[in-house]
Amino acid sequence: MPSADKKKRGKSSRKKSELDSALDQVGDESAAAAMKEFQDLLAQAKSDTTELVRQNAKELEERLILLKKRKIDKEDFDFFIENQKRDLRVFIDSQPAQAQERAEKLTLHVLEIAVTKVVPILIAAI
Amino acid sequence: MNRNTPQNLVVRNAVLGAAALIITSCATVNKPGSDATIESLRNFELAFIDEFAVPHKRFNAAAFDAKVNQGNTMFQQAITNEKFTARRPVLIDLKAQFDADAAHLRSKASRGKVTPALASEMKKDVDKIYDHALGR
């Protein structure tokens, strides 16, 4: 099926980011599954049609890299996540009801996984 | 019918037209005025970060508090003077961002934990939230 092929090709040819490379090194099976979910959602968000969704994903990725490189600490990271959430809530509330769930999944949900699953692994790996 | 009726109608229409013109021009004049207020708050907040989010700079609590008080006054005046009622919640959101920035900066600067990345990311967030406030 052409669309399935396209999807498959798109996924496999996606260039690995600096963050992807760090997350791919997770050995534990359940943690690896969480990382995979996060990477997939982040990739979706980064190619979303909505500018704010893309911008949020890009900022999150940049800040995870800054955290990994110890250019900011966990307090700073949490502070920036709160800023992003504050900004996003207004955006999500302004979306039509049927679009809210998707917008939330690609923004607030991604931030939540980053804070609860990705950051502890990144910090442990530092 | 009163002989003056047509004249009265002309006068009334002229008065109504003038009133409409004044209201319209007030809105046109005040919107950029309101935008200018938001821009001046943005500049204040960016300068505040530039002044206090400096790695290895000794934390001056008195200077910091004086600047925060100045910011609080500016935001309060902006909220009170805002003619567009729909803009007041936006200004309140910007004030909440200023409060959060000041609290985080105080916590980090007083412990000497400011990094260049913290300063640049804070300024990025300030620019973003002000752009959104201005509908950009």
Largest sheet of chain B: none
Order of helices and strands of chain B: HHHH
Give the DSSP E fraction of chain B (strand runs of 2 or more residues): under 5%
Q: Work out the helix count of chain B.
A: 4
Summarize the structure.
The complex is a heterodimer of chains A (126) and B (136). Chain A is mostly helical and 126 residues long.
Task: Note down, in words, how this protein is organized.
The complex is a heterodimer of chains A (126) and B (136). Chain A is an all-alpha fold and 126 residues long. Chain A has one domain (30-125). Chain A has 7 helices and no strands. In chain A, 24% of the residues are buried. The model of chain A is unreliable at 1-12 (pLDDT under 50). Chain B is mostly helical and 136 residues long. Chain B has one domain (31-133). Chain B has helices spanning 5-52, 61-81, 88-109, 116-133. The N and C termini of chain B lie far apart (56 Å). The model of chain B is unreliable at 23-29 (pLDDT under 50). The A-B interface holds A 55, 59, 63, 66, 71-73, 75-76, 79-80, 82-84, 86-87, 90 and B 93, 96-97, 100, 104, 107-108, 113, 115-118, 121, 124-125, 128-129, 132.
List key phrases describing it.
heterodimer; A: 126 residues; mainly alpha; 7 helices; disordered N terminus; B: 136 residues; 80% helix
Summarize the SSE layout with pairings:
The complex is a heterodimer of chains A (126) and B (136).
Chain A: H1 2-13, H2 18-23, H3 29-46, H4 51-68, H5 74-93, H6 97-106, H7 108-125
Helix pairs in contact in A: 3-4, 3-7, 4-5, 4-7, 5-7
Chain B: H1 5-52, H2 61-81, H3 88-109, H4 116-133
